[in-house]
């Protein structure tokens, strides 16, 4: 049953609904990870990325800037 209003309980319901829908659709990115990244020029930076419902699939990084 949907939660009304805003806040954590509504966010939790929305995340659970998204996960339930994605289970039948295959792998998907977990959008709960931080979207803001601060980096220093010339230093290594790590981007937090989670994939849910991966199963036996593989994730790879593709650089499209070339």
Automatic annotation (TrEMBL):
Residue span of region Disordered: 1-29
Compositional bias per record (Polar residues), positions renumbered to this chain: 1-18
GO BP field: synapse organization
InterPro entries: Ig-like_fold, Zig-8
Cellular component terms (Gene Ontology): neuron projection membrane
Protein name: Neurotrimin-like isoform x3 protein
Upper taxonomic lineage: Eukaryota, Metazoa, Ecdysozoa, Arthropoda, Hexapoda
